[in-house]
Amino acid sequence: MTLASIFFGFGANHAKNLRWQVVYSLNFFICAIAAALYLAMIFKQGFTYIDGRPAYLTRYLTWTFSTPLTIILLSYLGRTSILIAASMVGADVYMIVAGFVATISTKPISNIWYIISCGAYLGLAYLLLRRYRQQAERQYPRSKKVFYRLLTVHLGIWTAYPIVWILASTGFNVIDSTTGSACYTILDIAAKVGFGFLALNSLKQLEQAEG
Amino acid sequence: MTLASIFFGFGANHAKNLRWQVVYSLNFFICAIAAALYLAMIFKQGFTYIDGRPAYLTRYLTWTFSTPLTIILLSYLGRTSILIAASMVGADVYMIVAGFVATISTKPISNIWYIISCGAYLGLAYLLLRRYRQQAERQYPRSKKVFYRLLTVHLGIWTAYPIVWILASTGFNVIDSTTGSACYTILDIAAKVGFGFLALNSLKQLEQAEG
Amino acid sequence: MTLASIFFGFGANHAKNLRWQVVYSLNFFICAIAAALYLAMIFKQGFTYIDGRPAYLTRYLTWTFSTPLTIILLSYLGRTSILIAASMVGADVYMIVAGFVATISTKPISNIWYIISCGAYLGLAYLLLRRYRQQAERQYPRSKKVFYRLLTVHLGIWTAYPIVWILASTGFNVIDSTTGSACYTILDIAAKVGFGFLALNSLKQLEQAEG
């Protein structure tokens, strides 16, 4: 994470034009926020015990800041209208906050908040697959494949989070706490570092296709 | 609340133009945030006991997000300048935070924070009645009555909140905790669902008047 | 603080044009937020004991809101691009949050967070001295001296904060808790009231120089 944020930070400072600078800068902050989270976890900070299971509250706090930046990154690439971008950020924050409340609630109330959080995610996915895609394809008629790939990877990674949540100790307790944490870590690297490089690659392809 | 947010959500998705879409979307998020609050209250979550009286901290947290959206809704309808809109949001957040501090403080310190919160509200009311109205009437010279009604209803409902606060267990303890909660609930429905429909109606009248 | 915010508030209301109104309004909110902090401190609210030393958590909360407004004030005066202004706000918030985590952590972990916070500050200083200055000098070619003075005063005051932190009970414990608090108070007055007047003076000089 730290290495990736240094890479993106350098990229932002030497970017050849404003669009590259924006994409690098957003990636830099996304990774820098995540790096702070993992540092806190190494120091065993920012969690509390609820019902005997450790609840990483800091995780949700950093997600509240980093996931809207990912949405802004997508919106910037797709030249999304402010209304749709703001609605996606709203749905995203709603999803994270409901997920946070689910984590600090006891069962069975936690399951209801989990469903609400998933509902917000479905709303976000709807906005991405319909409104976002529509607008992006109108802006870049020759680059439908680029956005198809971006959205597939994005939704693929993000859909894995609620699956881990419901399988881990927060849900049905099928996988233990350590495995759950490891899954989140892998997903975070994919969603932040991996997706960051995909965003850079997409911008390159958009520039080539649209000249 | 949930029903209203579903209605506004559908409206946003089928709105005939961008302006309707914005108004529907803002109403949707305002009601969706409030719906989450009432769900938390049904589950008896998000409050703590201070001086033996229950303090609904979540109420203030959701107000911090929903009331600025109401201000943005008003500003969008009145085509308010960014500076005035941002100042109104600033005064609004200041008012909510001071009210929150008043709620978690013990008496008599709580009364001083209450006065500060009321001061912020007076600042907001001043901005609405002078700057906001001036700008709105310049933008829509033929619709003075629409804004007169909007502001009367808005200020009427919002002024009732501090009155309930000072009469309830947080203030002079004239009305009991349950009645206080019921008052807030009625006010929230008026300020969110009722005001949402008024905003839709106002937009319709503005479109008719200005052609 | 309260007097200064009243002064700036009056100024905003009677400003001769939009630019003065913006600068006055930003100063008003910066001072109003700080005034609330000092009121809370007079009431002995908003702090907790960590390792036997008082930690003023509210200080960091108010800084999270007031320092971005200072950055926005600087950006407005220098007509900074949105990307650079947003990056500076991002670095600023990162710095405050890392400083907050440093304050609530036990040693030696607190020192690592302190270094991270300083790193964010160096990033912010770099953006100010290179990007911000470049853009400001391009916008106002005849007013290099105004921005030189603004940045010198700004960075001079802000650099004193981490020095107080590391000397106070949060760091090497060279100065006692009361002296540390007094230092912060003097710095806050300089950074908010003093810098506010400097910003007004700079705007005047910019208007005179550029006609």
Walk me through this protein's architecture.
Chain A contains seven helices and two strands. In chain A, strand 1 and strand 2 form a beta hairpin. In chain A, strands 1-2 form a two-stranded antiparallel sheet. Chain A is mostly helical. In chain A, helix 4 packs antiparallel against helix 5 and helix 5 (109-139) runs antiparallel to helix 6. Chain A has a single domain (2-210), classed as Rhopdopsin 7-helix transmembrane proteins. Chain A has helices spanning 2-13, 18-42, 57-78, 82-104, 109-139, 144-167, 177-210; strands at residues 47-50, 53-56. Chains in contact: A-B, A-C, B-C.
Please sum up the structure shown:
The structure is a homotrimer of 211-residue chains. With 211 residues, the first copy, chain A, is mainly alpha-helical.
Features:
homotrimer; 211 residues; mainly alpha; Rhopdopsin 7-helix transmembrane proteins; two-stranded antiparallel ribbon; 81% helix; globular
The pLDDT mean of chain A sits at 87
Distance between the termini of chain A: 33 Å
Question: Which two chains form the greatest contact, residue counts included?
Answer: A-B, 14 and 14 residues
Briefly note the CATH topology name of chain A: Rhopdopsin 7-helix transmembrane proteins
Number of DSSP helices of chain A?
7
**What would the principal axes of the Cα set say about the shape of chain A?**
globular
- Give the helix/strand class of chain A: mainly alpha
- How many strands appear in the DSSP assignment of chain A? 2
Main sheet characteristics of chain A: 2 strands, antiparallel
Q: What spatial order of strands do you see in the largest sheet of chain A? A: 1-2
Element pattern of chain A in H and E: HHEEHHHHH
- Total domain modules of chain A: 1
